[in-house]
Structure formats: structure tokens, C-alpha cells
Description:
Blueprint: E1 2-6, E2 9-14, E3 22-30, E4 33-36, E5 40-43, E6 52-59, E7 62-68, E8 76-84, E9 87-90, E10 94-95, E11 105-111, E12 114-119, E13 122-129, E14 132-135, E15 139-140, E16 152-157, E17 160-166, E18 171-180, E19 183-186, E20 190-193
Antiparallel strand pairs: 1-2, 2-3, 3-4, 3-5, 6-7, 7-8, 8-9, 8-10, 11-12, 12-13, 13-14, 13-15, 16-17, 17-18, 18-19, 18-20
Amino acid sequence: SVCMLDEDKFIVSYVETTSSPILTKVCTLSGLVITAGSAQTADTVGSVSQIGMSIVQLATDKAVLSYTYGSGTNATKSVALTVSGTTVTFGTPVSLNASLTAQILKSAKVNTDKFAVLNDQYMQVGSISGTTITLGTAVSIFSNAAFTPSSDIVSPSNDVVVVSMITGGGTSYIRAATISGTTITAGTEVTTTGAAQTLYARSATVVY
């Protein structure tokens, strides 16, 4: 997973094998030349059968990494990080609700030092102070538990998210939600058919 930090800087999260730790690298860009910093460990999770991750920018020197590494309680975590140059400082990883265990997950910044994670049909919001994360209560955002890589989440304005999911049968679901603190209030689920729903947010009222 990768996200921009600044006009000439981005951060990458990855694993080298299923038995390696979760690593990050900060990279700088000059023209078309990329210079990668040293690999730094976000979490040592040991040997796992599946790994999914999503990293989102919170500021030019701050991001939050969410990742899942198996199944069961404590299988999905988020960790806040700060960046100075190409050096990363990590906070303490926190475990998301046990319902959020699917391999594929998506996340989005929803306000200053606040993010949302979508995993399977569940969503959870976290707020950050420094690198300390405080999690809200996870909610079931979709009625159908069939999360696929074509699901998506965007935040068109502060404390507003729009999420989408498509099932294996080709039925798509779209839902908007507002966030107060870390509390999620979801609107009415809309059902559509056809292609996968990939979201692009231009403003609070225009979502593709």
C-alpha cells in the first residue's frame, strides 16, 4: 500500500514474505528519480497466511497504517506514524474490532487526525492524538457480508464517508455515513447492479 505525504515524498507499506514483518519505506522524488529510505518495521506479526494493508495520509508528516494478518480476535490493527525526513516513528498498534478480519481492507482520512477502516461489511473510526489511537465502536455498514477488492471508501468532506461493496453475484451496495467523534451514523443502503463500484469524491455532494 502507498500514500502521498508531500509533493515530493510518499510512504510505502509492504511485506517481503508471509513470514516477514510489516515494513515501511519513505521515498523521495526528484524529477523521475525515486530515492528510497531504509526499511523500518511497523509490526512483527510472525508467519501468517494472509496479509492485507491500507495506509492513508493524515498530514505531510503523518499517516496511519491499517493491516490484517490472519483471522480471529486482534487480527486487524492500526498504527499511527510520524515522518521526519525518511525516518518513521511508530505509535503502539491497536487492535480493531474482532469483526474486522477480512484480508482485504480499505481506509480513508475523514478529518484532522481521524480515519475510518472498512473491512468486510464492518467499519470502525479511530481518532489520533500524537501517535495514540482511540477507537470508536465498529458498526455493520452493509447487510451483505461479501467484501471484495472492488469495495471502496472515500471521504468527500470532513466527517462524511461514502462506502461501496459488490458481491460475487454482481449486486452492488452504496451507503453514506456521518461521523461524530468516533460514532458512525449510516444512511440508507442503496442497491445497484452491474460493474464494481469504485468511488471518486470531488466534493461533499459529488461522488462517482
